[in-house]
């Protein structure tokens, strides 16, 4: 059955494309011995494999402006600080054993994290608590945690909970608002 269908294909190819007559036959003369070889011309294969390098001149000025910038832009200059959004430029590096690095937008790396807290026995629902996450801390992270805890407890007049992850370089703070932690870092000189 396969042999008959291949013969029909061979006859159709020969009648449709008479110029391919020499390409359809193989060394034994039968199409079903190697149908792929019969379907592809040897001259076509040689033409496709012979390639030459062609240099095309392209005007890259339109593409380059779409590419991301590799350098962080300079700190913007404003007339007054803090700006209406509350942003302040970084001060010269303070003489401390730790350093809080700003992100590429020149903002302090403060993030809010919501976690489940305790189960309320009356409603049997979990209470949620907001944690402030300070990332990008380099140097003595435990000294940073100690100084931040002292500052925040003195400012808020109640104890706060902290968690230090030395390997990832961040501190979680429970019991203080993000704006208060931001003010603490600004007062330290970051």
UniProtKB/TrEMBL annotation:
GO terms for cellular component: mitochondrial large ribosomal subunit. This is Large ribosomal subunit protein mL49. Coiled coil: none annotated. One of its GO terms (biological process) is translation. It is found in: Mitochondrion. Its main location: mitochondrion. It comes from Brugia timori. One of its GO terms (molecular function) is structural constituent of ribosome. The keyword DNA-binding does not apply. Belongs to the mitochondrion-specific ribosomal protein mL49 family. Keywords: Mitochondrion, Ribonucleoprotein, Ribosomal protein. It comes from the Eukaryota.
